[in-house]
Amino acid sequence: MRFFGTTWVAHDGGYGVRRAGVAVGSLLAAVVGCFVLRFAYEGLAIAAVGQFVNLLVVVMFAICSAIAFRRAWDGFSRRHDAASQASTRGLMTIGFVGSLLAYFLRSLKEAPGEKLHREEYEAACEQYEKRTARRTGNPSRKNKRKR
Description:
This protein is mainly alpha-helical and 147 residues long. It has eight helices and no strands. It is elongated.
């Protein structure tokens, strides 16, 4: 929701253009990240660390990316508690390609996190309506009228 301001509420103010920009930007960032990982892998090959270490690195990035994808995808529809976010911060950093791909795929449907924010926004509006509907005036004047 960082790039959308309040345009997600009514889908106005360049919402479509912003969503397309976020989709292209996140896909581009994922591609650049894959190139960076490729260069890192080539660095390991040049260092001749062995096939086991090369395999271990590839498997680690694949697993971390898969977990980061799932965690980011779930984060668009429900909030994670602070303790679990702190405990998986390193894993999400390693699997940044998965997070970027989740962001890209979600931006094809809606602004990433829009569903969650819309639910919270509608709940807050509903609570506000309930609070303001009960009040009909100055409560201190009500006691004076009854006397």
